[in-house]
Design brief:
- By secondary structure, the chain is α/β, with parallel strands linked by helices.
- The protein has 2 domains: about 5-280 and about 380-415, Alkaline Phosphatase, subunit A, CATH 3.40.720.10; about 285-370, Gyrase A, domain 2 (2-Layer Sandwich).
- Helices cover about 35% and strands about 20% of the residues.
- It contains 14 helices and 21 strands.
- It has helices spanning about 5-15, 30-35, 40-50, 65-75, 80, 105-115, 155-165, 170-175, 195-215, 230-235, 240-265, 290-295, 315-325, 410-415, and strands at about 20-25, 50-55, 85-90, 95, 120, 135, 145, 155, 220-225, 270-275, 280-285, 285-290, 300, 305-310, 330, 345-350, 355, 365, 375, 385-390, 400-405.
- The strands form 6 sheets. An 8-stranded mixed sheet has the order 6-5-9-1-10-20-2-21, with helices on both faces. A 4-stranded antiparallel sheet has the order 13-14-16-15.
- Helix 9 packs antiparallel against helix 10 and helix 9 (about 195-215) packs parallel to helix 11 (about 240-265).
- The longest helix has 23 residues, at about 240-265.
- The relative contact order is 0.20.
Length: about 425
């Protein structure tokens, strides 16, 4: 009996009422990148072949990390969820978004309220109190430092609360029963040159603990996790560079380790598995330095999007005129919460152009990009589209060409057996 036939037989044998769900987010993998790489990704390809694939899952607006994660969790657009960028305006400055900024119920909160057992193992933008088992993302500690960050940033209270949360004896016992240590490596002990590779180790570390928790005697009903370093390698080494493709292969191996643990424990057929990204990626040829082009305003660079604090119409008009020679256009700021739209304005750069801070001491208006691949493109640009795969006993086999960002959360809720009535959009598919 072949592997795929064996898995299919397991799925046929499982109780159809079982609704366990594992959600794995792989950071920054575009629809195109997955399609071109699938032959080298046996575990992801296997999920696609026996389940349901979305070829092009559109990104949230703006198509960057924390709005993408929040959209997966809530099924709400950014103007409703409150997480419209990686950094949010507070007073007259921007600070890093935290789980406390999410204004609407998340999937973990809904599931916990319904009496389900919910584990968050490193998935960003989840509050500890919305789960029954919580382990913070490896990149969120006393400081925020992902694999691509040049300098650590102080963590705000919402992230500190998550980072300092004790996962508890249950987590430690599950790890120990699987022969694993419950304590993860510490980011700050790694030399700067090795930090992208630390992220790779940390992603695999978390994958092993996901497998331990999912195969425990009293496994949760919902587990959410993420692998982050695929995004960092693309920012630093380029879209579909050799190292970026290797990092994606490592993510596939991490998924494979989880599936292997489930199969070895005889519980694979109990689980639905959803694997998707938060946004895509695309090559960047030129960086624009908006603070040099128009000094004096509070601004936030988010890929090809610029958010500018303009308290007066004259400021907005002057900034628009200053950016126009570089092909930058105003973009409707309806992606922002309504109370910000009079002050905070959005602009979008041309194709393969992103906004960045100028190198120290530079007065230039543009230059070579520090991040040679990025996201947060003009909405609708194919580079921000991402992949999504679903497999499990109640997932209908098939595929669809496109789906909207807001359809992910209701699809996950339906797989858990939760109501989808108050979501803004319909699920991508209904469980069988």
């Amino acid at each position: 009996m072949g592997y795929r036939t064996f898995i299919h037989t397991l799925y046929q044998m499982v109780d159809m009422a079982h609704n366990k769900l594992l959600v794995i987010m792989i950071d920054g993998i575009s629809a195109e990148d997955y399609a071109l790489s699938a032959a080298r990704l046996p575990h992801l390809r296997g999920l696609a072949e026996r389940g349901f694939r979305v070829h092009n899952l559109h990104a949230e607006v703006i198509g960057v990390s924390l709005p993408g994660r929040t959209s997966i969790l809530t099924g709400a657009t950014a103007d409703v969820s409150g997480v419209y960028a990686n950094y949010l305006l507070e007073g007259d400055t921007f600070r890093y978004a935290t789980p406390d900024d999410v204004r609407v119920p998340t999937l973990p909160a809904r599931a916990t309220a319904a009496g389900l057992d919910v584990a968050c193992l490193g998935f960003g933008m989840v509050r500890p109190e919305d789960t029954t088992l919580f382990k913070a993302p490896w990149w969120a500690g006393e400081t925020i430092q992902r694999g691509r960050d040049a300098e650590p940033q102080p963590a705000s209270p919402g992230l500190l609360r998550a980072a300092r949360h004790d996962p508890g004896e249950r987590f430690r016992e599950m790890c120990q029963q699987a022969g694993l240590t419950p304590d993860q490596p510490v980011f700050d002990t790694f030399p700067d040159a090795y930090k992208p590779f630390f992220g790779l180790v940390a992603d695999h570390w978390m994958a092993d603990r996901v497998g331990a928790v999912a195969t425990a005697a009293a496994a949760p009903d919902l587990i959410l996790t993420e692998f982050l370093i695929t995004d960092s390698f693309q920012h630093d080494t380029g879209y579909r560079s050799g190292l970026a493709q290797w990092a994606l292969e490592q993510a596939d191996l991490a998924v494979g380790k989880i599936l292997q643990r489930l199969a070895a424990a005889g519980v694979l057929a109990q689980w639905h598995v959803a694997v998707l990204s938060d946004h895509g990626h695309s090559p960047i040829a030129t960086a624009l330095y908006p603070r040099n082009i128009y000094p004096g305003l509070t601004m936030l660079c988010e890929g090809s999007f610029l958010l500018a604090l303009c308290d007066e119409a004259a400021q907005h008009a002057a900034l628009t005129a200053a950016l126009a020679p570089y092909g930058v256009q105003p973009y409707p700021n309806t992606c922002l919460p309504p109370e910000l739209r009079q002050r905070l304005h959005t602009f979008v750069a041309p194709q393969q152009v992103a906004f960045e801070d100028a190198p120290a001491g530079s007065t230039a208006h543009s230059g070579p990009p520090a991040m040679i691949s990025s996201h947060g493109l003009r909405p609708g640009a194919p580079g921000d589209d991402r992949f999504a795969l679903f497999a499990g006993p109640r997932v209908p086999p098939g595929h669809c060409a496109t789906a909207a960002a807001v359809q992910v959360a209701p699809t996950l809720a339906a797989l858990l057996g939760l109501s989808t009535a108050d979501y803004a959009a319909a699920p991508i598919f209904m469980p069988v």
